[in-house]
DNA sequence: CATTCCTATGCAATGTTTTGCATATGTATA
DNA sequence: TATACATATGCAAAACATTGCATAGGAATG
């Protein structure tokens, strides 16, 4: 178990637990917030991985009884887990998997009804604008922090900047692409810049 | 079999076969080229999916004997496959999975040696610059096409534009992030634009 | 008082992707 | 003449991810 080189959901979990111990439920929330911008995981997946991490000895837990609510299992990273995390940090990352169904649809757009394709693009525009708005709120929170808070949250904020840029760039592409498809037009210029 | 709603590697393969029949090997090449910019697949995966697609009746193949080399199985999309592909084209896409280990490392950068983190960023910069250069060559090819060729390749080119933008944007982020980490500095302004 | 949502956990089955191996020949390079 | 690389296919096992279900009580809404 856990003998393959790259694994990353496990390490994403270890990173979160290194910052602060928490239950599977907590982790699911935190994935939905911060780290979830660049690594998504369902609660089932998190519970499965916590089990595997326990078996590997990289995390440990204590059960906390709660009145009314079900018990919480509060996980924390172990010294072995920290060692493993540091090892992983030194190893080069694999390039992220690219899997965007929307681009397949655009690529093969001739097979679809033009209106369908346009509404798909509109839907994505809507979603990305919502995502960007949420990121902008978090960014504003960051800039309301004092000097020391900003220093402490510097690295997470740098990853948020990546998310903001990504959403902003995707929105621009969606807009330009939508317009070209609607007008049945060809792009006249290469993508600007570098 | 094949009863789940969203599946996309299968559909990416169907899209390629709709454009032109080919063997598993051919498809692996084509993934590496065009569609591979937004959907990557190893040859093992392609062979597995071709088998599943055959069993579902969405593709069919004939074996072509070759002198010297092993036989090729040339796959083509069936009428049922085309029906399925059109159905899939009308269904909304799931949002792409985000899984970027580099961002986990930046997020948790305090655990790592600063030099390690910087060289990781440099490595990514190098890779992305190479990717961007390759995209730019393909873009130049596109603009050398005549009016009719450009019209025919319009949609694939629009997806290439997405790739170019993405690489360009990532490079900018990598540069700015690298510099901030090197200088131990805080970003002074929110990400510009919208 | 019924319905829905939130907290909190998890199993079982299925589906997808990766990893590691295996085969076989032709052509080009050192 | 070794060695490597490109063509061409695939199996088996493990790892990873998704889907659907299940439990259970409290708090809020209608």
Rounded mean pLDDT of chain A is: 92
What is the quaternary state of this protein?
homodimer
Tell me the number of helical segments of chain A per DSSP (H or I, 4 or more residues long). 8
Ranges of chain A where pLDDT stays below 50 over 5 or more residues in a row are none
Shape of chain A: elongated
Strand order of the largest sheet of chain A: 1-2
| Chain pair forming the biggest interface | A-B, 76 and 76 residues
Count every beta strand of chain A, where a strand is a DSSP E run of 2 or more residues: 2
How many angstroms does the end-to-end distance of chain A come to? 45 Å
Strand portion of chain A:
5-15%
Structural class call of chain A reads mainly alpha
N-to-C order of helices and strands of chain A: HHHEEHHHHH
Helix content of chain A: 55-70%
Radius of gyration of chain A equals 21 Å
Biggest sheet overview of chain A: 2 strands, antiparallel
Provide the fold topology.
The structure is a homodimer of 194-residue chains.
Chain A: H1 9-19, H2 24-32, H3 43-56, E1 59-64, E2 72-77, H4 79-90, H5 101-107, H6 114-144, H7 147-152, H8 154-182
Antiparallel strand pairs in A: 1-2
Helix pairs in contact in A: 1-4, 2-3, 6-8
The first copy, chain A, binds a DNA duplex (30 and 30 nucleotides) through residues 1-2, 4, 6-7, 9, 23-25, 41-45, 47-49, 51-52, 66, 68-73, 97.
3D architecture notes:
Two copies of one chain form a homodimer. Chain A is mainly α. Chain A is built from eight helices and two strands, in the order H-H-H-E-E-H-H-H-H-H. A two-stranded antiparallel ribbon of chain A has the order 1-2. In chain A, strand 1 and strand 2 form a beta hairpin. Chains A and B meet through helix 1, helix 4, helix 5, helix 6 and helix 8 of A and helix 1, helix 4, helix 5, helix 6 and helix 8 of B.
